């Protein structure tokens, strides 16, 4: 091949064919560092196809004017464009938005965002006992209309700030207590308080947080005793039988004069409440408050169907008509049946007499719950102090 032919060969890129093939290669490097990717995929594509159109910066978007009086919780940001969000009324336009929390017609306070239901947002949330007691149960008793009392009349100039009293009682930290007050969750003497500057007298004020009564009297004692079989439900026994005081020797409040709420016969085991709060003891045993008591009953099996419905409908006893509130079969083994019954009657030996009346004498009887307080895994013969959350539920169950 001649020298001219070799120069025009496509292999060495020279000549006419090489010149045409070389143009895209030169444009590739003239496209503004397209191979480096400084402009992204669009710059690469423009350089690869030899585009020499200048780059135009995008126009800035115009921000809409927002009225600060009608702005939502995120002021200064555009309103959402969805149909659901745009249909919402601003908070300032809602009825009752300008009324103080707790007053008639005012908006209900929203729950705390970020950590709903955490220990810090609940009253006595850091305690071990009382976490799963459920909602506050109050007695269904009719009361007259309650008049509104100005918060200024609840203020005691010589008292202690409300949030400090709550924090001292173990409700939560002082900062969280202030949030509870601002959210309308605190009542003083039956009236909702939302002002942080209110002072109260801890000796006379009745304070509720989320419906839970705060017991401010440190001299009050509330205990749970898991009574074993063979122990008499008295503090002293003239016959020398084991009694409650024998188990109080190692308790912290052994020198305190305590009342036992209700009674359990010698053969019955389970929960007994001990307290020096006479008003609470009277209400827990009074039939008008209908405090439920839960028992586990063991009888001989098999247990025929229809007996449970008969116990719920009622049985005629020697001292009147009696029934159970609920009946549930827990377990069944050859020759034995375990049953759970709930009733609010406080008559003597009522559970044993009910099962005797339907032809199934009780083999073993254990009371596992009184009102909102249960035994749980508490060992037999032991005594423990109730937590403040448990005390609050117990007081609320009888209207205290």
From TrEMBL:
One of its GO terms (molecular function) is RNA binding. Residues 160-219 form the RNA-binding S4 domain. Its EC number is 5.4.99.-. PROSITE patterns: PSI_RSU, S4. SUPFAM superfamilies: Alpha-L RNA-binding motif (SSF55174), Pseudouridine synthase (SSF55120). It holds the Pfam family S4. It comes from the Bacteria. Transmembrane segments: none annotated. One of its GO terms (biological process) is enzyme-directed rRNA pseudouridine synthesis. Residues 52-67 have a biased composition (Basic and acidic residues). Residues 1-12 have a biased composition (Polar residues). This is Pseudouridine synthase. Residues 86-97 have a biased composition (Basic residues). Keywords: Isomerase, RNA-binding. InterPro entries: PsdUridine_s_RsuA/RluB/E/F_cat (IPR042092), PsdUridine_synth_cat_dom_sf (IPR020103), PsdUridine_synth_RsuA/RluA (IPR006145), PsdUridine_synth_RsuA/RluB/E/F (IPR000748), PsdUridine_synth_RsuA/RluB_CS (IPR018496), RsuA_PseudoU_synthase (IPR050343), S4_RNA-bd (IPR002942), S4_RNA-bd_sf (IPR036986). Belongs to the pseudouridine synthase RsuA family. It catalyses: a uridine in RNA = a pseudouridine in RNA. The keyword RNA-binding applies. Residues 1-160 are annotated as: Disordered.
